[in-house]
Amino acid sequence: MYSDDDLSNAVKQGVMPGSTADAFREFVEHQRKTVLQDEEHFRLVTSFNDIFVVIAAVLSLAALWTLGNLVHPLLGGFLVAAGSWLLAEYFTLKRRMALPSIVLLFACTGSVFGSIMTSFFDANPESAMVPLLAFATATLVAIAHWFRFHVPITVAVLTATAIGVIISAIAAIFPFSPELIKGLLFVAGIVVFLLALRWDRSDRERRTQRADIAFWLHLLAAPLLVHPIFSTLADSGIGMGLALITIALYALLAITSLIIDRRALMVSALSYVIYVFAAYLDSVGLVDVSTAIIGLVVGSGLLMLSVYWHPLRQRLLALLPDSWQGQLPQAN
């Protein structure tokens, strides 16, 4: 198995001419009756060996965590981080295995964050300095991991830990409140969304690693944007008004997703949509059939959108100014 990024690298290395690669892309588009940009390709599993390696790595790292925790949680975290880094030297740098690289990255940064929280949070449960220290250390690890291994998801992980640092620092200065956290998360979501668009704009044809980086950033931005909005609406009570607002917001998210050619916003908001309508149907006495109704309506709608994704994009982009169209993936 190989990705479009592998094709581009093969052209750069002189393995095949660019015309051959372009002809192959056109053949795949014609065969699948789609446009490759619309497929949102990203490397995850190249073969079952990826899953095999992940299982073995998780078992080994879990053993290191357990043995280290017998002495101290910080030791357990250090052993997992060091073990993940050493495994990445082979499976990421040499073998370029996508799924193991992602798992090893999360193990490396997550073990550092988790060990610090486990070691100090019980003694200082009300202090914002403990999560600040944990996020800051995880950020440094993510930075080092990026410069060494260049795994696409690392940029999203680094951004997430940096957001944690900023929110923890603000929480250490100002009194904690759910409204403050929601506001900060929403602002962070806007910033991450704009950052993802910047990466997307640098690779409109989505043939390089920059498109993968943008994909993970969109996946991070989506819950940051969606959660504060829907959780705030849900606090006011679930009724017909909230259901209609939810439909309108989801339609807006769908239009945005179509324009930027990314489905992450819609996927992230889906759980909130299902929750709102399940609660509403239960409140009007349709408890027994609420799941079936929601599954039929939402599932059918998403399937229809998937089928007509490309023609809908073409019509939406035609309504936008030429300057905007020049910044977005093409819809030929």
Automatic annotation (TrEMBL):
Listed transmembrane segments: 51-68, 74-93, 102-121, 127-147, 154-174, 180-199, 211-230, 236-255, 264-281, 287-309
Organism of derivation: Pseudidiomarina atlantica
Domain of life: Bacteria
Protein's UniProt name: DUF2157 domain-containing protein
Keywords: Membrane, Transmembrane, Transmembrane helix
Keyword set includes Transmembrane helix: yes
